[in-house]
Amino acid sequence: MGSVLHLDLPFRQATPAARKIALIQRFAAERRSRGDVFWLKENAELLNLLESTGARLEPEALEPLADFYEHFESRLGFFPQYYRFLLSLCLDLEDLGLSGTKGEAAARWVAQEGLADAELSDLQRAEARRLCQRRGIEPLKADEALTHRLYAFVTQCETFARPNKKAAYELTHIVFYLSEYGRRSPELPRAALDSLYHAGTLAFLELNTDLLSEVCIALRFAGQTPPVTWESWLFAQARLFVVESGAPGWAQDDYHPYLMINWAMSVAGQGGFGAQIPEGPIQFRAPRPHVAPLRELSEGLLAMAQDRRPEWHHMRDRVGDSLSDAAREVLQEAEAAVDFEAFFAGFARAGGPAACPSGPTR
């Protein structure tokens, strides 16, 4: 009987840790130029995921970013408009094990320059505050009401029962910041949890792996267990992502859904990062939905006009009759996963404004 030969291919990674190290190398040196702001965004998101999940890396794993760290101050001084990306990268590199203590001085400079005060968005101010507080610096001493405003936003649960991706992503990120990425309870009131379940229901109906992953992560950071239906579907989709060799450049791919779905798996204790990472520039392709249940559902409700009612038990059969078989199947799964009656009351948008008069009133 002949002996079995095992080929030691250079791109073969035997463990999730090895695959994470390969991702660091590809993101740092293969996908984009360091002069591209998307390089900052992609690397900051990858390192943030690794740091927040407690990744343990050998010192050489971060070597592809050592040159960035060495010249970090000059970049921060010249590109203060990108301070959140830059500071996040610096802090995560240090916390992941790169030797150095530049983060505290950088956070202090950000606070002294008032960069967080110049933000128009409470979400961006919350991110800046969370970054600086990682080194014991408070950048927003004059804005004591910020946390109150964040809670006021996330508790407007009816907002998140209506399709609005921008609001939904802001919701999940606020929970990330309030929970310090799962390190403490965000102490969400019931209304804020309802907001997450509403946003997740919309993401599931849209078959949106990226947003649903973020909602599931936020729920776990809030001490909740996401619906089994959601996570089972998500984790099945994770196996359908393709990581392949590509060409470097500006073209957008599905790297963010890939990171989020694997992060969701990690937070749920289901591993993640199972795909082999090829050599050279890499691209990510997500599975494409074969049906659009949310669109079908929305179009059917819109067509009903004034006949819409907010009670799901009254509308269920009428709505179902307007859907394709595939969309109806997804809707049934969504209905079984959550309190769909509460979700639909906001989603139906019944009782909208009456038509404006065509002329002046007397």
Please describe what this structure looks like.
- The chain is mainly α.
- It has 2 domains: 13-144, no CATH class; 145-348, no CATH class.
- Helices cover 55% and strands 2% of the residues.
- It has 17 helices and 2 strands.
- It has helices at residues 16-29, 37-52, 66-70, 72-78, 83-96, 102-113, 122-133, 146-154, 165-178, 190-206, 209-221, 228-238, 255-267, 293-304, 312-321, 325-337, 340-347, and strands at residues 242-245, 282-285.
- A two-stranded antiparallel ribbon has the order 1-2.
- The N and C termini lie far apart (101 Å).
- The model is unreliable at 1-10 and 355-362 (pLDDT under 50).
Please name the defining characteristics of this protein.
single chain; 362 residues; mainly alpha; two-stranded antiparallel ribbon; 17 helices; 2 strands; 55% helix; disordered N terminus
